[in-house]
């Protein structure tokens, strides 16, 4: 019972934040409601016993990634979004498609024979056990992600630096 | 006890909200945030299935999804800054150089 109340509480915050993200017209408000969604999702992870994932969710997602978003919004001084004509086709074709797709997802989930229930903290997501998985069973993907991060860092630096600075660097090299 | 389908439905709702935002929003940064919302919805179903099948691999996959999302956010926001520098706008309808 207690589990169900907590699930509904965090789920309601999640859905409210997601809807608020769509309704708000200023990107800062959307970003802040996305942070609310991520915090509430961390609560859901804790209910499922995934302590490590919940901590990483708060630190990496709600902390690092969203701060990057907020810094970009402030750096570009983004204002209210203006409505434009080009969005009409996407709304006319896309929204019915999304409704049908969402209905299909819900129907598939609810029509299946009951897959069972999850008790609170059903599976202990111990950091020690996850570390053993990460550094033993998933060692190769883990190492590949380090290469991915390195490439992402270099790409971000090159893309975000001013073109004149890149040209100057190339001249210095040549 | 909460049925697994409750978690899956919540994850589906988050995903559909993300797709809707991707379609109806015109600000490129908000579109990017909708993608993050979709990734979060999928993460929730990963963790729910991990708890259901008593296998921690699902949680490790969530970790990988987060790493990819972080890399994607860094590169994507750098692209947004570059677009803003050349086009002076964040409206995706005005970034139409590749349109016929």
Structure overview:
The complex is a heterodimer of chains A (174) and B (100). Chain A has seven helices and one strand; from the N terminus they run ααααβααα. Chain A has 174 residues and is an all-alpha fold. In chain A, α1 (2-23) runs antiparallel to α2 (27-47) and α2 packs antiparallel against α3. The longest helix of chain A has 25 residues, at 51-75. Chain B has three helices and one strand; from the N terminus they run βααα. Chain B has a single domain (4-94), classed as Helix Hairpins, CATH 1.10.287.3510. With 100 residues, chain B is mainly α. Chains A and B meet through α1, α2, α3, α4 and β1 of A and β1, α1, α2 and α3 of B. β1 of chain A pairs antiparallel with β1 (2-3) of chain B, so a sheet runs across the interface.
Write the layout of secondary structure elements.
The complex is a heterodimer of chains A (174) and B (100).
Chain A lengths: L1 H22 L3 H21 L3 H25 L11 H25 L5 E2 L8 H11 L1 H22 L2 H11 L1
Chain B lengths: L1 E2 H21 L3 H26 L3 H31 L13
Please sum up the structure shown.
With 174 residues, chain A is mainly alpha-helical. Helix content of chain A is 79%, strand content 1%. Classes of the chains: A mainly alpha (174), B mainly alpha (100).
Q: Which structural class matches the secondary elements of chain A?
A: mainly alpha
Oligomer: heterodimer
How far is the N terminus from the C terminus of chain A? 70 Å
| Proportion of residues in β-strands of chain B | under 5%
Q: State the CATH class of chain A.
A: Mainly Alpha
Beta-strand residue fraction of chain A: under 5%
Radius of gyration of chain A: 22 Å
**What do we call the CATH topology of chain A?**
Four Helix Bundle (Hemerythrin (Met), subunit A)
The CATH first-level class of chain B comes to: Mainly Alpha
Tally of distinct domains of chain A: 1
User: Total helix count of chain B?
Assistant: 3
CATH architecture of chain B: Orthogonal Bundle
């Amino acid at each position: 019972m207690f589990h169900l109340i907590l699930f509904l509480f965090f789920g309601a915050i999640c859905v409210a934040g997601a809807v608020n993200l769509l309704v708000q017209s200023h990107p800062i408000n959307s970003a802040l409601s996305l942070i609310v969604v991520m915090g509430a999702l961390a609560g859901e992870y804790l209910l499922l016993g995934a302590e490590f994932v919940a901590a990483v969710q708060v630190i990496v997602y709600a902390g690092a990634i969203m701060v990057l978003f907020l810094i970009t919004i402030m750096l570009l001084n983004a204002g209210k979004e203006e409505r434009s004509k080009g969005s009409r086709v996407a709304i006319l074709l896309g929204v019915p498609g999304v409704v049908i797709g969402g209905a299909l997802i819900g129907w598939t989930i609810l029509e299946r024979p009951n897959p069972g229930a999850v008790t609170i903290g059903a599976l202990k997501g111990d950091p020690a056990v996850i570390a053993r998985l990460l550094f033993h069973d998933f060692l190769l993907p883990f190492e590949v992600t380090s290469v991915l991060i390195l490439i992402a860092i270099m790409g971000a630096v090159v893309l975000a630096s001013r073109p004149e600075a890149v040209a100057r660097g190339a001249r210095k090299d040549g | 006890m909460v049925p697994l389908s409750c978690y899956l439905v919540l994850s589906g709702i988050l995903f559909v909200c993300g797709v809707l935002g991707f379609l109806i929003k015109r600000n490129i940064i908000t579109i990017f945030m909708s993608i993050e919302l979709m990734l979060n919805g999928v993460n929730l179903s990963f963790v729910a299935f991990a708890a259901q099948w008593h296998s921690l691999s699902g949680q490790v996959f969530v970790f990988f999804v987060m790493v990819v999302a972080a890399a994607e956010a860094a590169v994507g926001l750098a692209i947004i800054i570059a677009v803003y520098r050349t086009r002076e706008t964040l409206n995706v309808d005005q970034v139409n150089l590749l349109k016929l």
